[in-house]
Design goal:
The complex is a heterodimer of chains A (290) and B (259). Chain A has 290 residues and is mostly helical. Chain A has a single domain (2-279), classed as ABC transporter involved in vitamin B12 uptake, BtuC. Chain A has helices at 2-10, 12-37, 41-64, 72-93, 98-119, 125-132, 140-159, 161-169, 171-176, 181-203, 208-219, 226-249, 255-289. Chain B has 259 residues and is of the alpha/beta class. Chain B contains six helices and eleven strands. In chain B, the strands form three sheets. A six-stranded mixed beta sheet of chain B has the order 5-6-7-3-9-10, with helices on both faces. In chain B, strands 2-1-4 form a three-stranded antiparallel beta sheet, with helices on one face. Chain B has a two-stranded antiparallel ribbon with strand order 8-11. In chain B, helix 3 (118-130) packs across helix 4 (146-158). The model of chain B is unreliable at 226-238 and 244-259 (pLDDT under 50). Classes of the chains: A mainly alpha (290), B alpha/beta (259). The interface between A and B is medium-sized, with 31 and 38 residues.
Chain lengths: 290, 259
């Protein structure tokens, strides 16, 4: 802990990591609340995995054709938005089995990513950091991008808060009120896509969904209002990512994985605590009656 | 209640509806509802009750025929319809307060910056009082009893001051005593609104109901008989009226169980 703080003051990559953790928690707490309440965690996971395709293709062209401006994250943003809109239109229009289509996109995106990363000259260590995240590799430029995405996500959420909450709560009623349900659904998927892109840098593709859903799952047990759940989820997300970062530092563990283990442990402790409390209430009432 | 508009609140003329696989749900539906009506829609599951409701809300479009709600094709004047779905379909853990839910009834077709005004909040409080949930404004919706959730959803429909209330099985999973309270509330609401209610209690409807629409692919309107049965009253603990079953809804026999 003290070693971490000492290094934090000196090493820029560590400062970047802390800022990245804080920035990501803001977007993932806010958008994760919608994802959990609208029950689209499966779609969020599919978008996350599709991103690998965009990362892989962008990196391949950047290396092979020497295009330094083409950063992998641009490919990620493009693929995330494209897959979100594609999934959105499919689930709104098509009569196909939605989950089958989503699964197909999920694996095709990954497969394309693996192929391009395999054919990219040089070391392929990046594949691991895409899949499992490496918060210590976040650069200053990455931070600007993450910060900008944060502003977009939070701005749109604040602007459309009432409508999006109503669509999550009761889509049909919102439609009878004249709310453009399709628009807000697609907006929600796009926000999810952007959030997934910036969260990938912290915990990686495979574990994005945990950072989106676990803080919300904990927070929603304690609050009766969506914005309170959002704020609590943001704070919990910060707690998890920063403690993951600090605790992984000295033993040199992968911080993304440790973050998720901490969040998961907190979630199951909350579950255990609330079921314990429930059984206490149930046990005490028949005892009082007899 | 007489309102300036002479047209019926709801008018179906030769309406047919079929799903894309060709399965006919509604056939040749003709009926109209006058202002101030309190009508009850009954019929078997899959008979087309919900489809009929969704057609009125503009959520579905008829294959043929014309539907007028408040003088216009559904989809245009939805602000004047208060729709109350069944509470059981909601996420039991959704973090919203009663006031939040009721305020959703104020939403309109607007794209930007939808903050609720003080006036809308005041209207929401009035609607909450009207359904008897005062003091529970800031309670979580998830923690309410079934009947209270249903009341909150009715308040959400009332807040926009609609002219037509559509209720989808409002007394399903409410006990007999609660059902009586609900019918008393509907009677009061009927002073101000035209009410169409889908009812699960096939065969019996409250004494406030004036006419009964029986739907099973086709539709028949039954007047409500003046007869009151003491035995029924004892059984239900309510002042119930009998539906006249002296004619048939379809050639296969009557859809409602015989008394």
């Amino acid at each position: 802990m003290s070693a971490f703080i000492k290094d934090l003051l000196e090493l820029q990559f560590l400062q970047n990591a802390v800022i990245a953790g804080i920035f990501c928690s803001i977007a993932s707490g806010v958008v994760g609340t919608y994802v959990v309440l609208k029950r689209i965690t499966y779609i969020a996971a599919a978008i996350a995995h599709c991103i690998l395709g965009g990362l892989g293709v962008a990196r391949y062209f950047s290396v092979v054709y020497d295009l330094p401006w083409l950063r992998p994250v641009y490919g990620a943003v493009f693929t995330a938005l494209a897959s979100a809109l594609l999934i959105g239109f499919i689930s709104l229009r098509a009569k196909e089995r939605e989950d089958t289509v989503i699964s197909a996109l999920w694996s095709i995106g990954m497969a394309i990513g693996v192929l391009f990363i395999f054919k990219t000259p040089g070391y392929n260590e990046d594949l691991m950091s895409y899949l499992f995240g490496n918060i210590l590799m976040v650069s200053r430029e990455d931070l600007y991008l993450i910060g900008a995405l944060d502003l977009v996500v939070v701005g749109l959420t604040v602007t459309f808060y009432n409508q999006t909450v109503a669509v999550c709560f009761d889509e049909e009623f919102a439609r009878t009120r004249g709310v453009a349900v399709e628009f807000y659904y697609l907006l929600l998927l796009c926000l999810t896509a952007l959030t997934v892109v910036l969260t990938v840098s912290v915990v990686g593709i495979v574990m994005v969904i945990a950072l989106l859903s676990l803080p919300v799952a904990i927070a929603s047990r304690f609050f009766d209002s969506v914005w309170k759940v959002m704020i609590a989820a943001v704070l919990l997300g910060m707690l998890f990512t920063l403690s993951g970062l600090v605790l992984s530092y000295s033993p040199n563990l992968p911080s993304g994985a440790l973050t998720i283990v901490i969040a998961g442990a907190a979630y199951f402790l909350t579950l255990a605590w609330s079921s314990l409390r429930r059984s206490k209430v149930q046990n005490s009432s028949p005892a009082a009656a007899s | 209640m007489k309102v300036d508009s002479p047209a019926p609140v709801v008018q179906f003329s030769d309406v047919n509806f079929a799903y894309e696989d060709g399965f006919t749900v509604l056939e040749n539906i003709n009926f109209s509802l006058e202002y101030g009506e309190f009508a009850c829609l009954v019929g078997p599951n899959g008979g087309g009750k919900t489809t009929l409701l969704k057609l009125m809300l503009g959520l579905l479009k008829p294959a043929s025929g014309s539907i007028k709600v408040l003088g216009e094709t559904p989809g245009r004047r939805q602000a004047n319809i208060g729709y109350v779905p069944q509470f059981s379909k909601f996420d039991a853990a959704f973090p919203v307060s009663v006031l939040d839910v009721v305020l959703m009834g104020c939403l309109q077709r607007s794209f930007f910056w939808g903050r609720y005004s003080d006036e809308q909040v005041a209207m929401a409080h009035r609607a909450i009082n009207e359904v008897g949930l005062q003091g529970k404004e800031h309670r979580g919706f998830a923690g309410l009893s079934g009947g209270q959730k249903q009341r909150a959803l009715i308040a959400r429909a009332l807040v926009s001051e609609p002219r037509l209330l559509l209720l989808d099985e409002p007394t399903a999973s409410v006990d007999v005593h609660g059902t009586e309270q609900f019918y008393n509330m509907f009677e009061e609401l009927n002073q101000k609104f035209t009410i169409l209610m889908v009812s699960h209690d096939i065969g019996f409807v409250s004494r406030q109901v004036r006419s009964v629409l029986c739907v099973r692919k086709t539709l028949q309107i039954h007047p409500v008989s003046e007869l009151t049965g003491e035995a029924l009253q004892q059984m239900y603990g309510l002042d119930v009226h009998l539906i006249r079953h002296d004619h048939r809804c379809s050639d296969k026999g009557h859809i409602c169980p015989h008394l």
